[in-house]
Every structure is written in structure tokens, then in C-alpha cells.
Amino acid sequence: MTITIRHRTAYRFAAPVFLEPHLVRLRPRSDGAVRLLDFALEIEPPPAVRADNLDLDGNVVTHAWFEGLTTELQLCTSARVETLRADPFRFLLAESERSLPYACAPDRAAGLQQYRVAPDAAHPEVRALALAATRDAERDQVLFPLELARRLHRECTVQARPDGPPQPPETTLATRRGACRDLAVLFVAGCRAVGLAARFASGYAARAGGAGDELHAWGEVYLSGGGWRGYDPSLGLAVADRHVAVAAAARPRDAAPVTGSFRGDAAARLEVDVDVRAC
Q1: Span 241-254, mean pLDDT?
Q2: Which DSSP letter does residue 120 get?
Q3: Alpha-carbon distance 162 to 225, whole Å?
Q4: What is the model's pTM?
Q5: Residues 151, 133: contact at Cβ < 8 Å?
Q6: What is the DSSP track for 242-271?
Q7: Within 13 Å, how many C-alpha atoms sit on residue 112's CB side?
Q8: Is 24 helix (H, G, I), strand (E, B) or coil?
Q9: How far apart are the first and last CA of the chain?
Q10: Which secondary-structure segment (H or E) carries 74?
Q11: In the chain, fewer beta carbons within 10 Å around the N or the C end?
Q12: What's the confidence (pLDDT) of residue 95?
């Protein structure tokens, strides 16, 4: 499937401000599930210095340094990708690896340390949710992430919240409502509560009818034999060929599409336009 993405983010300032260095994570990830065919990022005002780098999680990040004063910052991207993973369950997991709660094999525990927590460190209500999903999944590591995603989709209401960081997972669980990023954080916490390595992912999803009009967030779980696999609690499904990730990290703030600040005494207004189409 081919997916095209157009994304504009604009910050309007009531008075001239000085832009501090910014990090931009909007380049679609190119991996075993997605092939990046074309990408462009335009930044206004043009940065004095611009560099594309890999961050600690392996995401492509554009660093932008600015000079002078401005009343706006605009980021416009266009991308075309080919998605390759029509069947999200096409992998094998050894029987010795399937049981939950999961004790990570020593030879990979160190590499996954930042994506895991001690199960007893999880919030009690989050752990109770995860254990209930574990029972319904028959303690099977392959079945559990999908069961948890489906449970959150059934029990939680997705609501629009254009800006702000994700809620703590226990808050989303208590209210049974949140934005997609809130449900993604709760999903990640639930996976970690049973010993799995999990991380927050941001990107785009082409919805039913072939289009999408906003950034999206979901969770990724590391499964031996499957690698990092995505599960979307907002939609209650395993991520296949309609999702395009741009970044994934242990902490949501490290997968944020734009990170930066400004100096100046001015109110700021945010504008976002996203168009995602699948064909």
C-alpha cells in the first residue's frame, strides 16, 4: 500500500521572538514494515544551521538552529511511503518465550533495560488491568498485547486533546478516557507491568476510507522473533499496513514531533494541518 502524507505545523507569535534550537521528528521511519520513497521538510524561517542525525533511539531527528527575530515558525513536510506489513502476526516465538509474566532473557535484558520496569513498580491499578488481560490471553505473550489493546479500546473513550503531554497512565485508567497518546502511554505501562519491553510510538494512521487528519500515537512491544511490534489501543488492533511511525522512544517526550522553545514576551498560537491518504 502507498500512503502519502502532508503535514503543516505553524507557531504564530504576537510579537517578535528568538527561537531556541529545535528538534524535529517528522521523517517517516524506514524499516522492515515501511519503505520511505520520498520526503521533504521545509522550515520557515530557514535555519542558520540544519543537520539530520540519529537520536539515542535510532530516530531520524532534524536539528535546527536559528538567528534573528521572527513572528512565526512553520514546518511543512511531504512524504510518500510504501507499507509492507499486511499481516502483523507473521512471526514465530519459541514456546519457552511465550509465558507471562515475562522474565527477559539475560542476553537481551541490558539492551532493553530502558523499555522495562520491575513489574511490582507499576501502579497497582495498571498492574491489575495487565494481569486481567494476561488471564484472558491465557498467559500467552503473543496474544497479550492484542488483548490489552482491544480491552483499552472497549473500555476507554478516545477524546481530542490537541496539545499537552500525555496523562499518567493511572489517570487515564481512572477516568476511562484520553487522547490517543494517553491510551498509548497506558498500553505501554500495562505491557511493562507484566515484564515486557514496550515503548511509545508516534506517527500517522490512514483510517477507514483511506484518509487521516492528525498525528497519531500507539505502543510498540518487543517480542523475541518478532522484534518491535505495534499495537494501537485507540483502534483496538495490531499495527499493520495503515500505520506509519516517525519516532519511538521509552519516554513520550523523546518521540515528540517538535521540541523547542523561544525567548520573548509573546503569546503563541499553534496551527496544525495533517492529510494522510492511502491508495
Answers
A1: 96
A2: G
A3: 36
A4: 0.94
A5: yes
A6: TEEEEEEESSGGGG-SEE--EESS--EEEE
A7: 23
A8: strand
A9: 6
A10: strand 69-83
A11: C
A12: 85
**Owner of C-alpha cell 504564530:** 12
Would you place residue 166 in the very low, low, confident or very high pLDDT band (cuts 50, 70, 90)? very high
User: What's the sign of the alpha-carbon dihedral 105, 112, 234, 4?
Assistant: negative
**Rg value, the chain, Cα:** 19
Q: Spell out the residues 6+ positions from residue 21 whose beta carbon is closer than 8 angstroms to its own.
A: 63, 64, 65, 66, 260
Interacting residues of 205 by C-beta distance below 8 A, sequence separation 6+: 212, 216, 218, 232, 235, 242, 243, 244, 276
How big is the CA angle at 156 (ends 84 and 258), to the nearest 5 degrees?
A: 55
Output the nine-digit C-alpha cell for 14. 504576537
Distance CA 189, CA 128 (A): 11
Dist CA 254 CA 114 (whole Å): 12
Facing residues of 7 across strands? Answer: 77, 274
pLDDT tens column, 199-247: 999 999 997 655 567 899 999 999 988 999 999 999 999 999 999 999 9
Burial of 260 (0-12, 13-18, 19+ CB in 10 A): middle
In three state form, how does the secondary structure of 83-97 look? ECCCCCCCCCCCHHH
φ and ψ at residue 94, rounded to 5 degrees: -60, 145
223-233 residue pLDDT tens = 988 999 999 99
